[in-house]
């Protein structure tokens, strides 16, 4: 990934249970100091997402690394930035009025 | 998973995405585009720059199905150089 250039990444999530699950995710960036340079344009996080029983979906993240990352001497040795997401269950099986879905 | 030992520096504050959340592609409408993108990545040793055309195609697929992504000019999504290329190619024909 080149700092300043937009990039796309995919995660995959599966609901292995027989009930719909509403999840919400948050993210983490390692190393910690690189997090300030990580800019998400659009992703699946922070909003509740519903996964039906046995459903598997692709979860995209569209992002870029701030070009100032390349100027920061503290980042000189950082060659690998790891983005991870953790899904939390919101409320199991609850029907939410999801905008845009009919 | 991570235990960041913060020695008094600013804490990591997760920030929401600039343009909000992607609705889930429950019906896999753009899965084919995603597969082509992933295949490109595998073939180019996971170098993101090499696969920007495929990333652009995936996002265009989402935008065409309006429930999956709001329409944005491609230049604003960082694909300005790719849109110039396509218009150049058209004028050469």
UniProtKB/TrEMBL annotation, chain A:
GO terms for cellular component: mitochondrial inner membrane. It is found in: Mitochondrion inner membrane. It comes from the Eukaryota. Pfam families: CtaG_Cox11 (PF04442). It is a single-pass membrane protein. Keywords: Membrane, Transmembrane, Transmembrane helix. The keyword Cell membrane does not apply. InterPro entries: CtaG/Cox11_dom_sf, Cyt_c_oxidase_assmbl_CtaG. One of its GO terms (molecular function) is copper ion binding. SUPFAM superfamilies: Ctag/Cox11. Exerts its effect at some terminal stage of cytochrome c oxidase synthesis, probably by being involved in the insertion of the copper B into subunit I. Interacts with CNNM4/ACDP4. Interacts with RANBP2. This is Cytochrome c oxidase assembly protein COX11, mitochondrial. It comes from Dromas ardeola. The gene is Cox11.
UniProtKB/TrEMBL annotation, chain B:
One of its GO terms (biological process) is mitochondrial respiratory chain complex IV assembly. Residues 30-64 form the CHCH domain. Its main location: cytoplasm. SUPFAM superfamilies: Cysteine alpha-hairpin motif (SSF47072). GO terms for cellular component: mitochondrial intermembrane space. It is found in: Cytoplasm. Residues 1-20, 73-93 are annotated as: Disordered. Pfam families: CHCH. Keywords: Cytoplasm, Disulfide bond. Belongs to the COX19 family. This is Cytochrome c oxidase assembly protein COX19. The gene is Cox19.
């Amino acid at each position: 990934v080149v700092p300043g250039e937009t990039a796309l990444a995919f995660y995959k999530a599966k609901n292995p249970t027989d009930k719909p699950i509403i999840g919400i995710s948050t993210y983490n960036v390692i190393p910690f100091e690189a997090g300030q340079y990580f800019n998400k344009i659009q992703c699946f996080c922070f909003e509740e997402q519903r996964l039906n029983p046995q459903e598997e979906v692709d979860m995209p993240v569209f992002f870029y690394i701030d070009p100032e990352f390349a100027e920061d001497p503290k980042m000189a040795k950082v060659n690998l930035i790891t983005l991870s997401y953790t899904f939390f269950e919101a409320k199991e099986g609850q029907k939410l009025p999801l905008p845009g879905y009919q | 998973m991570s235990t960041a030992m913060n020695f008094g520096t600013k804490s990591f504050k997760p920030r929401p995405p600039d343009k909000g959340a992607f609705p889930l592609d429950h019906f896999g409408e753009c899965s084919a585009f995603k597969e082509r993108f992933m295949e490109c990545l595998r073939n180019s040793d996971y170098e993101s720059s090499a696969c920007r055309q495929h990333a652009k195609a995936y996002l265009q697929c989402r935008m065409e199905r309006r429930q999956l992504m709001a329409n944005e000019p491609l230049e604003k999504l960082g694909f300005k150089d790719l849109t110039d290329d396509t218009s150049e190619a058209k004028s050469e024909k």
